[in-house]
Amino acid sequence: xxxxxxxxxxxxxxxxxxxxxxxxxxxxxxxxxxxxxxxxxxxxxxxxxxxxxxxxxxxxxxxxxxxxxxxxxxxxxxxxxxxxxxxxxxxxxxxxxxxxxxxxxxxxxxxxxxxxxxxxxxxxxxxxxxxxxxxxxxxxxxxxxxxxxxxxxxxxxxxxxxxxxxxxxxxxxxxxxxxxxxxxxxxxxxxxxxxxxxxxxxxxxxxxxxxxxxxxxxxxxxxxxxxxxxxxxxxxxxxxxxxxxxxxxxxxxxxxxxxxxxxxxxxxxxxxxxxxxxxxxxxxxxxxxxxxxxxxxxxxxxxxxxxxxxxxxxxxxxxxxxxxxxxxxxxxxxxxxxxxxxxxxxxxxxxxxxxxxxxxxxxxxxxxxxxxxxxxxxxxxxxxxxxxxxxxxxxxxxxxxxxxxxxxxxxxxxxxxxxxxxxxxxxxxxxxxxxxxxxxxxxxx
Length: 445
Hints:
Blueprint: E1 5-6, E2 15-16, H1 26-47, H2 51-70, H3 100-115, H4 122-135, H5 141-162, H6 229-242, H7 246-254, E3 262-265, E4 268-271, H8 277-292, H9 296-324, H10 329-336, H11 356-372, E5 378-380, E6 391-393, H12 396-409, H13 415-437
Antiparallel strand pairs: 1-2, 3-4, 5-6
Helix pairs in contact: 1-3, 1-8, 2-3, 2-5, 2-8, 2-9, 3-4, 3-5, 7-12, 8-9, 8-11, 9-11, 9-13, 11-12, 11-13, 12-13
C-alpha cells in the first residue's frame, strides 16, 4: 500500500508526504474526519436533500477542511487557482496550539452548519468534537478556542464563496412542466413527484469550464419498433427485473441511494432514509483514506477532490437529463408493454438519461484511482447504517462499474444510460485531475 498520495502517471515520481500538524496518527485522524463527515450525511437525511444539492453541500464542507490545511503550511496541491472561479481563501489568524485534525474537522462542520437548511444540528457534533479533543487528545481549552477561531474564519470565507454560485437563484426560474411529447419524462409512482432541480446546470462548477463541456452521445431515440435499439433496451430492463438473481437484487439495493424512496402503511407514506450517491462515495473516500494510512492533510486533499468532482459530475449529468428528457423504463413499460410491471427500486423524480449514479461513481473512481492507486481493495460498509451488508471491491473502478449496472438491475435505467454515464463521469473526473496537475495560473489558493 502506498503511504503517500500520487498525483497521476506523469508525476508518479513526485510524492508529497504531507506536513500534518496533529497529535493523532494518520489512521486516527482519518477516522475522526470520516465520522464527522457522516454527520453531514445525517443532516442531509433529515432534510431529504436531493442528490445534486447534497453534492454541493459536501463539496463546500470539504473545501472548508481543505483550506485549513492549505493555509497552515501544508504542501498539498493548490486546487483553488484551477477552479472556474478562484475562492481566494486566505488566513489572517494563526492559531496557537494548532491541531490540523481538530481545526479542519471543525471547519468542515462549520461550513455544513451554515450551508444546510438544518445545519444547526451540527452544533452538537462540534461540541462533542471539542470534548473529545480536550479529554482524549489533551488539547487545552485555550488551544481549542484558538483553533475554533481559525476554523470559523476559513469557513466564513467558504460560505461567502458559496453564496455566489447561483444556488439562491434556482427558485426564481420558471417552474418545469413535463412535456406531453411521446417518449419524454413524466412523473412516476408512487409519489408522482415534480422534477428535481431542472435548472441545476446554472450552478457554478468547480473544474468544469461549462455545464455542457462533456455532453454524452445522444440516447437511443424513442421508438415502438420492436427492432429498434430503444425498444430492445426496454425489453432488456423488463426481462432483467423479472429474472433477477438474489445477488443482483442485493447489488441494486446496495447502490439504491434514493433519498426520495417511500413505503406505505395503509394510506400513510413513510420516507425511507437513504444516503445520496454522493454521500455513498464520500463514505468510500473516508474508508479508503483510513486504510491507505496517508498523512492527514493528504486525506483532506483527497476528500476535497472527490467532493468538488461530485459537484461537477452532477452539473454535467443534470444538463443532459433535461436536454434529452427521456422517459423512464417504468413509464414506458407500464404504458406500452405491461401495466402491472414494477421496478425493484423506486424510480427517482427526474429524467432518465444519463444515469446519475453511473456518472458520479465513474467520476469519483477516476479521482480515487489516480490519487490512491489502481487495484486498491477495500470493504465498503457505507450502507451498514441503513441495514445492508458490507461489500468487498478490488478497485474503485470495480465499485463504480457495479454502481452503474445496479441501475439496470433496479429497473430504473436503460443500458445506454449506464454505459454512456460511465464515459461521461470518467471525462469529468479526468478533467478535475488534469486541472490540478497543470501549473496554477490564476494566483494562489
